[in-house]
Structure formats: C-alpha cells, structure tokens
Design goal:
Distance between the termini: 4 Å
Helix content: under 10%
Radius of gyration: 27 Å
Oligomer: single chain
Shape: globular
Strand content: 35-45%
Number of strands: 54
Length: about 800
C-alpha cells in the first residue's frame, strides 16, 4: 500500500472536469497507457466512476455505474492506475453493466481475477475502451478515510463517503452517530453523546434529538459542532425530558431524516455505548465516559503516545527509491546498534549504521538484491528480523514473488549474511505458509516478522494452540530456539510459527488485533511485550501485547505521536534496546518515501537508572526497567496547585456539572492568558495542535473559539501537553481567540489565531452532496495558484 504522487496541475485539471461533468475524448490514435488529464470521471454514454477504494478493504477496487437507460458492454475495456508500466487489466468477455447498475473492477485475489497492482494514496484510475481510447479518468491525492464516492449516488461529486458500499448505492448519509447513552440519572442528569465518523466537522445546528415520544423534541442550537472522531454531549437540562428505563434515543437531520437511533429495554448498570466508538454495536460500558472514548471490560482504548511528539527524518533525501517496508533493530559494535531494512518492490535488503550525529545510512548503498533459493524471482520483501540462535542470517517475510505478482506466496525466507555486503543473495531456506491461508490475496500476505526465544515464551507461560497445552519447544524438532511471529495484512492478525529445518512449519498461536491492517510486528524484551503496528490505515496506531493466561493479549493501544503525520505509510517499526536520557529510539519505515524520505525516528520513555541495552532477543543483555503504564491521556494528573505560569488553577477535585459552559469574552484577560500556544493562522476545517502545557497532561479540557463562543471539542491533554481541535468549516475569516478551559470552566489559557480567507476541507452537506458550482469554484481557486508542481515519486509495479 504505497501512495503515488502526481502533479498538482494535472489533478486540478482532472477535478475541474469531474466537477463540470465534461468529457473530452482521446485522439483516435491513442493507446492503452496514454494519458489525457482532460478526460474526466463521466462518459457521454452514462458510464461514470462511482466509488473508489484505495486503502482499507481486503482489496482495492473501482466501482462503475451506468446512469443511462441502456446496458453497456464492457468486454475488452482495460483498467490502469497512474503507472503506465503496469500491465493493464482487461475486462473479460461478458462484462456488462445494466441500465442503472453497478460494476466493480476489483484487485486480483486467490479466488477471483482482477488487476495485480495496488491503488495508492495519490493515484489515478483510468479506463480505456477496446480501441485503446481513454474514456474515464479519476485522480485523488490522498486515501479517503472511507471511500471516494459520488454524492448523490451516480451523479454528484466524488467525496469521502460515510461507509463503503461496494457494488451498491453510495452511503451519503450524515456521519453523525449516537455513541453513548446515560438513561439512569448521570451527572447532572440523563445525557446522550454524539460522535462523527466522517472526515470533516459537522454543524449540528438544526438537528433534532428525540426519545421514543415524538412530542419530545430538542432542536440542537446553531453553532454546535462535532469534529471528526470527536464527541458532543446533549444533556437533559438542555433537551428538557428524561430518558426512561425502556426508551429510545433518535437523531434527525435538519430535513427530518433519521440519522441514527438506539433502543433499550432496561437501564444499563453504567451506560450503553458503541464498541468501537461510532461504528460498533451497543453494549454496556465498564464506566461512563461522557465526552470521551468509550471503555469496556477487556477492551483496550487508545491512549496518547507517551514518548516525544515528533517523528524526525533520519535519511538523506532520495537515499531509498520508494517502498521501504520492514525494519528491525539489533545490537552491534556501535553503541547505537544497527538496523536492517527491506524494500518490497525491488526486493532489496539494507544494512544501516548510525553516523554518530543523529543520522543513519546504509552500509550497502545500493542494497542487496534478494532472490528465491534457485536464484530466480524478486521476493516482495515486507518484513525483516534477526534471531539470536542464527547470528549469521537475516529472515525476510514476503507476500509474493513480484515476478509472478498475481500469485499469493506468504513466506519466510532465510538469507545468509552478517552485514549485507553481498550484491545479491539467494535464499537458503523458504517456509511458504500458503497452505495455512487459502484464499489470501496476493497483496495481502506477510507484512511483518519478528522472532521470540523459547526461553522467554516458556518463562512467561505461553500456550500452544496446536497441542492445547503449555508450549513445549521439544515438540517441534529442528525449529531452532524460538518462534517466528508474522503479521498478515489480509487477516489483520498475528500468527506464531515453528519453522523446522526441513521446510515444515506448524502454527502455534493466532493473535487477533484491533486494527484493519497489520503492517509490522516487533518483539520488545525491554517491555516483555510484542508490538503490533498499523500504518496510515489506522492513523499510525500501535499496540503492546503481553502474555496473560498463556496467550498474547493487547494491554495498551497508542495513538501516533501527536505531531506525527498520520498519513505516512509507516509499514515498518523498530525500537532500540538502548535506554539513553530517559528514552529509547523508535524507527519508522515509510513505504511512500514521502518528500524523498523513508526513515524516521521518535522516542519511547524508559528508565535510565537501570543500565543495559535490552539487546537482541535472547542475547543475555541486561533489560532496563520498564516504565509504568501511562494513565489514560498519556500523562499523570498534576498535583493540586500545580499552576501554569500566568494561567488559572482548576479547583481541586472539580468535576463537570452538565454541558461545558463557555467563559465570557470579557473574562479573557492578560492575567489568565497563560502560556497556551497554537498556530498563528489556520484555514476553516483545518485541525490544529494546541500546546496547553505538560502540567495538565491527563486532564479533560474544553477547547473554544471566540468571538461567538464555539465549543471545538472536549479532549484529554496528551503527555506532551497538547490537544488537537478542528476549526469549524464555516468559521469566518479574520482574528479569533482559542481558549482552553478546565472541566470546571476555569480558563487555563488563550491565544489569538487568524482564520485564513481561503477555505479548507468542505464540510458534510448531506445526501444532496456538494453542488457542482461550489466544487468548480473551489478548484478554480486552487488552479489560480499557478504551475506549482508536486515532487513525483514513482514506484515499481509490485510495490504494495
């Protein structure tokens, strides 16, 4: 899954054509692979690009719709992305789309034909007729949070949809969802929490809340908003009626259409909430979490990253040529250790060393070219690890042989090397796990691999699901001194394997994850835990798994560092065993080589008082003492009286009393301005980071925008002292104030911000979608920026 970049001018031109619904046919001499940015996503015969999935489902796909009154024969049509070096997928004979019908062009899988390349975060879908003429073209510059789909279905502009609807009418409904319900006298009474599963802030003004009685109706005031992933609470003192033991909560949009509803037959012991937030089924929560993420017994809720807020670039520009995917840290003669990394598209292995000044570079600048045991093929190298029982080798996980890219080959390969100094390497051993994954897509195989020593597993009471008893290494003759754990993209799960010296293998454990994609796995002997990593499909979240009752279970889920770019395709993750200055280095491999950089670093806290490097798994190094698990929100509660310079001190033990109350503008003085900081300027619809101060880490705060007080959201201050908030899409241009208050209404600080007159992301507009005129006007404004060209990075055909 690596996004491709494209020229801004081309994307703007294409989008202008989409907005206007214009199609210019290609010259008669055109051939499949020829491009023409003036061709749009709608054809005169009624065929349109209706929905695009480029990241998130088991396969990438493009949905066509026939808006005409006659069937269209698609036999012999050819499909390409933005890379003309890819082999076009030709639709088979008999491919027909009926009047008003849908037709999905899908990615190849083990059970169905399709195109054998992936759709990236910045890419183009192109469709050619049997004569080779380009008839449909749609470009995008970033993955949709869900899918890009026409709203209204078939005729509107392509916007981020509310739900994926492959082969069916698009979901253009409001993204507002009921998330939690308190019906039995909460604080200060009954309440209903709303959330937003979309990608832009929604103005709730005019929405109506009702219980099961139609005469009980509360119209939400204008200016009430809910940010993407945020929470807005409706309180009994506002809506004026109580919720009963057997009752309903219903939300209607301003047109009177039902947006969401939930019905219950008895009071919950705590509250009823969705698991997961916004999208899951309702269940009893473990405790009320008014205005915050729901919590359930046995379910881990994402917390703020406890380390530094940044991911800093480590490599020189253009060190790598795209597709850096897997990474692993291990000890070496250097105090900083060494890194191994693999590049999937061209099957390269890199050995990286520190320059002693904060940078890293490969000791084998051109990389080592990897092949299968017979010297053929290009392994789609996705993950890499080393083991303490085989110090002269590197193990690589793959999805397929890129020379036969439509065939799934989820395998672990062994390569004999100590420093990657060879120009080419043939695998000495291969364990092809395909028999364990029938139907697995060719681009959905082994993304990550790590190794855990038997001594650690047995000491922690690890259980063997194959035997149904405690794990006993002697059961698996010739497997070495540990097990290999692999992360599989297509199943979003992790599996433990004994890999025997004769090529046999046995699955020993299956580990479910909360993620839609598993991008990497990494054993961490310092924490006695297994890291499971998701990429941009989960906004860069990671999870820690520990052994409990014989099985690995998630104990902590972390958000990405607060200042990190959550759209980076960080498919590789590693963490140093060296604790220095209270932190260990983390490493990220960006499969998209964003801006020409593939390698970044961050920090994770550790206890420097205990010497030792943690070491390679099983190397006998002294393990630093793990830091305590951070409190929700990534920090600890400040002691009463711990005050920010110039700010106000919340009352000790203060608790919320109903909906947040905005301070008056006259109360905002220099005396309570504090040290709060935020960007000097922002666009409407933009998400900004506000630095409140680390002394408030872990506290719930309210974020407001003045002059007219607008609640931007309620959030928990992260360990680094920051919160994020989204500027309303309809925020007027000019100077405003950003104000942060404690739960009791005390002003913690404020600062000024100027809203730029150029609008940002367009807000949700309901089933009517965006007007063509509005889209065209916005894009024409963007086109007026001139001939600015984004840096173009090309991938290889098999670089997913």
């Amino acid at each position: 899954m690596h996004p491709r970049a494209l020229r801004l001018g081309a994307s703007v031109a294409a989008a202008l054509v989409v907005a206007a619904g214009v199609l210019t046919t290609s010259p008669a001499s055109a051939a499949v692979g020829d491009d023409d940015p003036s061709v749009g996503a709608a054809s005169p015969n009624g065929l349109v690009v209706n929905e695009v999935e480029s990241n998130g489902d088991d396969t990438d796909w493009v949905e066509l719709r026939n808006t005409s009154s006659a069937a269209i024969d698609l036999s012999g049509y050819a499909f390409l992305d933005d890379d003309s070096s890819h082999e076009a997928y030709v639709l088979p004979a008999g491919s027909t789309i009926g009047a008003g019908g849908y037709f999905v062009i899908d990615q190849v899988s083990a059970t169905a034909p399709g195109f054998d390349f992936g759709l990236g975060g910045a890419d183009t879908a192109r469709l050619y007729d049997p004569a080779g003429d380009l008839v449909l073209r749609y470009s995008w510059t970033a993955h949709a949070a869900v899918t890009y789909g026409r709203c209204p279905d078939g005729t509107g502009a392509l916007v981020d949809t509310t739900a994926s609807t492959k082969g069916a009418a698009n979901d253009c409904s409001s993204p507002v969802r009921i998330n939690e319900v308190e019906s039995d006298g909460g604080t200060p009474g009954d309440w209903v929490e709303l959330t937003n599963v979309g990608t832009t802030t929604v103005d709730l003004g005019g929405y109506v809340f009702r219980d099961s009685d139609d005469t009980h109706a509360y119209t939400i005031p204008t200016g009430t908003t809910v940010a993407p992933g945020g929470f807005t609470v409706l309180d009994e003192q506002d809506f004026g009626f109580g919720l009963g033991k057997a009752d309903s909560a219903r939300v209607f949009d301003p047109r009177g259409d039902v947006v969401d509803s939930y019905t219950w037959s008895a009071h919950a012991a705590t509250t009823y909430g969705r698991n997961p937030d916004g999208t899951g089924a309702f269940a009893e929560t473990s405790a009320p979490t008014k205005g915050a993420a729901n919590r359930f017994a046995g379910v881990v809720t994402a917390e703020a990253w406890p380390g530094g807020p940044d991911e800093r670039v480590l490599d020189d520009e253009d060190t790598f040529t795209d597709d850096l995917s897997g990474i692993d840290w291990t000890t070496s003669g250097s105090a900083a250790g060494q890194l191994w990394a693999v590049q999937n598209g061209d099957g390269l292995l890199y050995h990286l060393v520190s320059d002693g000044e904060g940078g890293w570079a490969p000791s084998n600048a051109d990389g080592t070219e990897l092949h299968h045991a017979d010297g053929s093929g290009t392994p789609d190298a996705e993950g890499v690890t080393v083991t303490s029982d085989d110090p002269g080798a590197v193990y690589v996980s793959t999805e397929r042989n890129n020379d036969v890219s439509s065939t799934s080959r989820p395998a672990v390969l062994r390569f004999a090397t100590t420093d990657g100094s060879q120009s080419t390497l043939d695998a000495t051993d291969e364990w092809n796990l395909a028999a364990d994954f029938p139907g697995l897509g060719a681009n959905a195989g082994l993304e990550g691999v790590t190794w855990i020593p038997d001594s650690w597993l047995t000491a922690h009471g690890f259980a063997d699901e194959h035997t149904g008893a405690a794990y006993t290494p002697a059961t698996y003759t010739g497997h070495g001194d540990g097990l290999f754990f692999v992360g599989v993209e297509g199943t979003a799960s992790v599996y433990a394997y004994a890999l025997m010296s004769d090529g046999a293998f046995q699955r020993v454990a299956t580990i479910a994850t909360p993620f839609s994609v598993v991008a990497d796995v990494q054993f961490d002997p310092t924490l006695d835990a297994l890291w499971v990593v998701c990429d941009d499909a989960c906004s860069g979240r990671t999870a820690l798994y520990e052994v409990a009752d014989g099985a690995f279970a998630a104990t902590t889920v972390y958000e990405a560092p607060s200042n990190a770019d959550r759209t980076l395709a960080n498919e590789g993750f590693a963490i140093s065993g060296v604790c220095s200055g209270g932190s260990r280095a983390t490493f990220y491999a960006d499969d998209n080589d964003t801006d020409g950089f593939s390698l970044r670093t961050g920090t994770y806290p550790c206890d420097s008082s205990t010497p030792g490097d943690g070491g390679m798994p099983g190397d006998g190094g002294t393990t630093p003492t793990p830091v305590p698990t951070p409190t929700p929100g990534g920090g600890s509660t400040p002691a009463p009286g711990d005050t920010a310079p110039g700010g106000s001190t919340p009352a000790a033990g203060a608790s919320p009393s109903g909906a947040p109350v905005a301070p008056s503008e006259s109360s905002l003085t220099e005396a309570n301005r504090g040290t709060l900081t935020a960007p000097a300027t922002a666009r409407a619809g933009e998400t900004i980071t506000i630095d409140v101060g680390t002394r408030y880490a872990g506290q719930q705060v309210h974020v407001w925008m003045f002059s007219t007080p607008t609640l931007l959201g309620t959030a928990t201050v992260a360990a680094d002292g920051t919160v994020t908030a989204t500027i309303p899409a309809d925020a007027p241009a000019g100077e405003h104030r950003i104000v942060v208050t404690a739960e009791d209404g005390t002003v913690l600080g404020w600062t000024t911000i100027t809203i730029d007159p150029v609008t940002g992301a367009l807000a949700f507009t309901g089933a009517g979608g965006l007007g063509v005129g509005a889209v065209a006007a916005f894009l024409l404004l963007a086109a007026g920026a001139g001939v600015l060209v984004l840096r173009r990075r090309r991938g290889t055909p098999a670089s997913e």
